[in-house]
Amino acid sequence: xxRALYTAASGMTAQQMNLDNIANNLANSSTTGFQQRQVxxxxxxxxxxxxxxxxxxxxTTVAAGLQIGLGTRPxxxxxxxxxxxxxxxxxxxxxxxxxxxxxxxxxxxxxxxxTRDGSFHPDAQGTxxxxxxxxxxxxITIPADALSVTIGSDGTVSITQPGQTAATxxxxxxxxxxxxxxxxxxxxxxxxxxxxxxxxxVVGSPGGAEGLGTxxxxxxxxxxxxxxxxxxxxxxAQRSYESNSRVVKAADEMLQQLNQLAQ
Length: 263
Fold this sequence. Notes:
Elements: H1 2-27, E1 37-43, E2 46-50, E3 66-69, E4 72-79, E5 86-88, E6 95-98, E7 102-106, E8 112-115, E9 121-122, E10 128-129, E11 136-137, E12 148-151, E13 156-160, E14 168-172, E15 175-177, E16 185-188, E17 191-193, E18 202-204, E19 214-217, E20 219-221, H2 227-262
Antiparallel strand pairs: 1-4, 2-3, 5-20, 6-19, 7-8, 7-11, 7-15, 9-10, 12-13, 13-14, 15-18, 16-17
């Protein structure tokens, strides 16, 4: 019964973390480019009273054995790599990636971070930056007198200027792909950093041979969080927590009865 108390407590602790993750998903249901996470669980050690396959007699072995599990624990949080819905903004500097890939962002510490959030703005020099002012890589600069900006599905950025009839190319937006995007390190502000688990980025032009998705101008990718599914997950987490708490109560009542027998 003491074992039941600790096993049930591990289940309650696991569901608390599950609910924390659900709360974060729901809080970011309107965050541009956000990709929801899912908590994965694993069972803990087993106490073996009778090992499966052990000798029952000289001629026979135990077929099933007798093992008691000791509960569960959160093992990982998996990023769900599904495409979010697109919303049309009409802003020519808003970009969405249709398919795989991340935008490359130069951080103040010199590191390159990666994001699905394509809401870019020109800074005082005309360089495309994020909402926090971090520049897109490779850098794209839009002249102040540009009359229009056109960004092709392959990342080609062209502008038209006064007195010119032909468009002028000012750069090419490149995106990055990871073998294991679930291994990226989330650092907040819609940014990810590569790790040994994610592998090194494969950089190329959108829609190229590397398998990178194409760019959609004037659109933003919304969060891929399904509010309905998260509410269902929240109910399941709540019921699982409640079930484990009842096990704690039942084990406590059994211990109470044992104490009464000893009196």
